[in-house]
């Protein structure tokens, strides 16, 4: 066989790596009930130790900030009014927020206990260093996959050291430890046990995961459930459709589930998009009212909850823009020192509201390659780039401006060596891989739980630089992990 015909990597290595992935739950569920492995890199990326340490230091501060903003209900309502008018989904969320917390200074205090499980996503820009892409406060998933892919890369290093050395970005780098699955479970179990202890009853605490209909990302969720079961927590799964008719109120504002009993913690892996509340069989006059009211019902009970409506509002793109543009002194509202604020500001990329002035500026003078246009949507497909921004801005009506924001586009380091992506058992050589690093944190009732200062682990998703959509489900994203170099 000539060198040109020689495979990039032995077929058996790929087969065993894919089998390891499925065996350890790093997989998606197919419509026929079978499983396929998640796409992954054959060896990790490398990050400068000082850059990694900086985002590790700042991220707990960001979580503390979002935690405090999310409980500043008058600030949320006054700051996000225009955005809620411009985005139908957030209009519904704001209506529920006002129902739960009151309006115009007449605050009410629901019984729920907030559990903030947040993923802060970064890219390491070539010129400006690591900057936040977005905050994820609801359905911030794939933490378990983050730990598992770190383990897969160590498996590769131990089993096939030559292959690993050939494809790792820096053979002299060392692994960035990642215990995201275990520590997320610890944070959740802490909240569940705390709530149960308030009722002074025996037995296991009960955890309820709210999931989407026909979910294919079940294994990431089941990994977390298995870890919770190991910590003495009973786990359940329900859709909003099911909960609409199964939840009821027990004594002392206890949340109850028909056929089960008391619920101590509710964790939403659904609820970040309109379709999660869409129930055509109900024939509603107001779309999604019944199922979204289920969230309002949950918040009126003494239950640990991720995500609260206020957490979802506080991690919106518009709130990210408001905090980015806010003068340093105004952060004293939430008890931050100037030193802390400057650390926070060091990772916030420039953002601008969409209005007549910014549209005129963008169309006539801006470097169109230096910006990205974002709406409030979660997941892929909600960003507009380059010349397409001008076209989209020209199509917007003034009443729609509040749902959009311009953000400085980040140009992260490309991996210095080619790497191999494994998808559906096949390999692809990629010469320009870039990475997005998500750091997970856990706060319960405004205080860090698990990990160091609430920092519990990370998730890396990499993609070719030329690809705009880097999702693992869709697009060209692959799971990755981090090694560090000095």
Automatic annotation (TrEMBL):
Domain Glutathione synthase substrate-binding positions: 206-314
Assigned GO CC terms: cytosol
Enzyme class: ligase
Needed co-factor(s): Mg(2+)
Residues in the signal sequence: none
Keywords carried by this UniProt record: ATP-binding, Glutathione biosynthesis, Ligase, Magnesium, Metal-binding, Nucleotide-binding
Metabolic or biological pathway, per its Swiss-Prot or TrEMBL entry: Sulfur metabolism; glutathione biosynthesis; glutathione from L-cysteine and L-glutamate: step 2/2
Protein known as: glutathione synthase
Protein's organism: Shewanella woodyi (strain ATCC 51908 / MS32)
Taxonomic lineage from the root: Bacteria, Pseudomonadati, Pseudomonadota, Gammaproteobacteria, Alteromonadales
């Amino acid at each position: 066989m000539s060198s040109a015909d020689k495979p990039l990597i032995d077929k058996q290595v790929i087969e065993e790596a894919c089998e390891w992935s499925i065996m350890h739950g790093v997989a998606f569920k197919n419509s026929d009930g079978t499983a396929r492995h998640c796409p992954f890199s054959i060896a990790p990326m490398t990050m400068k130790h000082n850059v990694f340490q900086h985002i590790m230091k700042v991220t707990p501060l960001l979580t503390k900030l979002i935690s405090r903003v999310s409980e500043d209900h008058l600030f949320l309502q006054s700051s996000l009014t225009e955005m809620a008018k411009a985005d139908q989904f957030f209009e519904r969320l704001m209506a529920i927020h006002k129902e739960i917390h009151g309006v115009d200074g007449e605050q009410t205090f629901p019984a729920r206990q907030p559990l903030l499980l947040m993923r802060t996503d970064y890219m390491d820009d070539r010129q400006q260093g690591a900057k936040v892409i977005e905050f994820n406060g609801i359905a911030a998933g794939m933490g378990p996959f983050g730990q598992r892919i770190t383990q897969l890369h160590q498996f590769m290093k131990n089993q096939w050291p030559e292959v690993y050395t050939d494809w790792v970005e820096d053979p002299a780098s060392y692994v960035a430890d990642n215990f995201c699955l275990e520590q997320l479970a610890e944070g959740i179990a802490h909240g569940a046990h705390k709530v149960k202890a308030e009722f002074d009853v025996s037995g296991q605490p009960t955890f309820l995961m709210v999931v989407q209909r026909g979910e294919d990302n079940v294994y990431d969720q089941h990994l977390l459930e298995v870890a919770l079961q190991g910590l003495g927590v009973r786990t359940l799964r329900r859709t909003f459709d099911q909960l609409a008719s199964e939840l009821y109120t027990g004594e002392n504002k206890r949340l109850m589930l028909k056929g089960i009993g008391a619920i101590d913690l509710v964790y939403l892996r659904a609820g970040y998009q309109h379709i999660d509340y869409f129930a055509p069989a109900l024939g509603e006059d107001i779309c999604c009212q019944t199922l979204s009211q289920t969230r309002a019902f949950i918040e009126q009970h003494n239950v640990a909850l991720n995500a609260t409506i206020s957490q979802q509002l506080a991690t919106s793109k518009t709130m990210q823009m408001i905090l980015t543009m806010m003068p340093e002194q105004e952060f004293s509202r939430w008890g931050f020192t100037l030193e802390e604020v400057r650390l926070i500001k060091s990772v916030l990329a420039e953002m601008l509201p969409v209005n007549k002035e910014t549209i005129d500026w963008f169309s006539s003078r801006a470097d169109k390659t230096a910006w990205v246009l974002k709406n409030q949507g979660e997941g892929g497909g909600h960003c507009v780039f380059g010349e397409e921004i001008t076209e989209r801005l020209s199509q917007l009506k003034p009443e729609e401006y509040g749902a959009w924001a311009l953000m400085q586009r980040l140009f992260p380091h490309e991996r210095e060596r080619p790497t191999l992506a494994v998808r559906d058992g096949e390999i692809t050589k990629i010469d320009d891989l870039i990475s997005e690093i998500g750091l997970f944190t856990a706060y319960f009732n405004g205080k860090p739980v698990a990990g160091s200062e609430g920092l519990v682990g990370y998730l890396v998703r990499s993609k070719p630089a030329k690809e705009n959509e880097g999702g693992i489900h869709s697009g060209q994203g692959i799971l990755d992990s981090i090694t560090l170099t000095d």
